[in-house]
Amino acid sequence: MKRILILGCALIWAAGAGGAVAQIIGPGHSISDPPPIPRPPPPKVEVPPIPKLDALPTQRTVTTPRSSFGDRVNQCLNEAAAGGLNQADSASYSRSCAAARD
């Protein structure tokens, strides 16, 4: 008799608790948590073309000719004089200006 009673209780519990088991919320979660955001696709990896040994280079590097250091110093001294700098300030300005110019 006890076996039939235990079996009956188990069947009733399984039939009634089947829907409620799916609604149990695990630790660290709440009912209002939004679904996780999908990951972005991985970046595309493109292999650069390999240069051939017997081919000539396709890019030409043309640089503009740089003026001489003396020309750059003269131009910087003229700018310092136009700015009204004294002799000491003009000298330090012309050194830093000429070194920084292209």
Task: Describe the fold and architecture.
- Residues 1-22 form the signal peptide.
- Keywords: Signal.
- The protein has 102 residues and is mostly helical.
- The protein is elongated.
- It has a domain at 66-102.
- It has helices at 2-21, 69-82, 87-100.
- The chain is 47% helix and 0% strand.
Quick structural gist:
It is built from 3 helices and no strands. By secondary structure, it is mainly α.
- Average the pLDDT over all residues and give the rounded result: 81
Low-confidence stretches: none
Termini distance? 103 Å
Strand content: under 5%
Radius of gyration, taken over Cα atoms and rounded to an integer in Å: 41 Å
Task: Please summarize the sheet with the most strands.
Answer: none
Structural class from helices and strands? mainly alpha
Dominant shape: elongated
Tally the helices.
3
| String of helices and strands | HHH
How many strand segments? 0
What is the share of helical residues? 40-55%
Keywords: Signal
Blueprint of the fold:
Elements: H1 2-21, H2 69-82, H3 87-100
Helix pairs in contact: 2-3
Descriptive labels:
102 residues, mainly alpha, signal
